[in-house]
Amino acid sequence: MEIREIGVVGCGLMGSGIAQVCAASGFPTVVVEATQELCDRGLGNIVKRLERAVQKGSLKAPEKTAIEGRLRVTTDQTKLANCDIVIEAIIERIEEKNRLWRALDPILKKDAILASNTSSISITEMMMATSRPQRFIGVHFMNPVPVMELVEVIRTIVTDQEVFDSAIAFVRKLGKQPVRTSDRPGFIVNRILVPYLLDAIRALEEGVGSIEDIDKSMRLGCGHPMGPFVLLDFVGLDTTYYISNVLFEEFKEPRFAAPSLLKRMVIAGWHGKKTGRGFYDYSDPNSPKVMDLLRL
Ligand code: NAD
Hints:
45% of the residues lie in helices and 14% in strands. By secondary structure, the protein is an alpha/beta fold. Helix 1 links the parallel strand 1 and strand 2. The longest helix is centred in the first third of the chain and has 21 residues. 40% of the residues are buried. Nicotinamide-adenine-dinucleotide binds next to helix 1, helix 4 and strand 6.
């Protein structure tokens, strides 16, 4: 099945990145947001990123104009009627996502591929909000979308093979590297990453090492580009906590259970870089200071 026109719903952090990559890969892309103000903000963020690329010399000015010309940002869902694939990237709440899919179902064309960028919600649950679960998949882009190469493509037990294969081919056309996975919480990346991050927090709680030394160990001992606490602060402690709860709920295994310290930091509003505090204090963004979290 050939994909010619793309729809993206939600133009926040992920949706704006996905729309940008689709338009930059030559696809006419319709982006739907909730209000005109959010449409303007989302498109503004894409234009700013493209401007920076032109200034850096990685994008030519006429290419920027061409990319912008392929993007249509609107509040009108009926503009998705001709799209061959629609990628949903709205807020991570099952009731909101299912409400959206129920509204889109009668609008989208019969053979369109329906895709969600969810990090933690069951693809199987979402597909049941539509009349065509066999055409529903997950396409999980990584943040920041224009930079990160990986996309997890997720099938359910009822996904048509042709839909899955078309989605894999489409991801390649975006210049990304697809991996195939099935609808299980966390898919591949978070299933492995989240227990690793939780274990780093447990090691800290048990006095195995300091924040700095655990980070240093994984960087210098394992060749990771950043240690687990720097990564936790970047991903967001709230996001990690949320995903760990989803994993624990499904598998009931202690390795997925959130450590007490993580839970308390989330309640205290220390969500990492975005709130200025996590395992490091970002008051001076150029020189983060390690937090003293276990003092008495
Ligand atoms: P975000 O809050 O930045 O963006 C969500 C956008 O969706 C908002 O702009 C909001 O106005 C819009 N929206 C909400 N309801 C809508 C509706 N009915 N119609 C149109 N637009 C609507 O969130 P995000 O970080 O971009 O996350 C979006 C999705 O991507 C979530 O499912 C999340 O789990 C997933 N995801 C996030 C990350 C990440 O690192 N942030 C990584 C991978 C996947």
